[in-house]
């Protein structure tokens, strides 16, 4: 793997752990270092760090809070 690609991956813990869990990316980046942006996007999807994932987590939290509020109101009445 190219030195600059390897150094870049070492600077980000998430990318380090992703490449350990998905070793095919190591082989791919060794052959095609220009695939680094695709590698980062794949890591974001793998760890659920994309904007749609974050919005979904917030929506789930709001739904849970709403459910708890209705439950407390029902118990209080």
Features:
rod-shaped, mainly alpha, 77 residues, 0% strand
Architecture overview:
With 77 residues, the protein is mostly helical. The protein has one domain (3-75). The chain is built from five helices and no strands. Helix 2 crosses helix 4. The N and C termini lie far apart (65 Å). This is YlbE-like protein. It holds the Pfam family YlbE. It comes from Parageobacillus thermantarcticus. InterPro entries: YlbE.
Could you give a short description of this structure?
The chain is mainly α. The protein has helices at 3-11, 13-21, 24-31, 36-47, 51-76. The longest helix has 26 residues, at 51-76.
Structural class: mainly alpha
Q: Please indicate the percent range of residues in DSSP E strands (runs of 2 or more).
A: under 5%
Mean pLDDT: 94
Low-confidence stretches: none
How many strand elements?
Answer: 0
Give helix and strand order, one letter per element, not per position: HHHHH
Tally the helices: 5
Distance between the termini: 65 Å
Q: Please give the largest β-sheet.
A: none
Rg over CA atoms, rounded to whole Å, is 20 Å
> How helical, in percent, are the residues?
over 70%
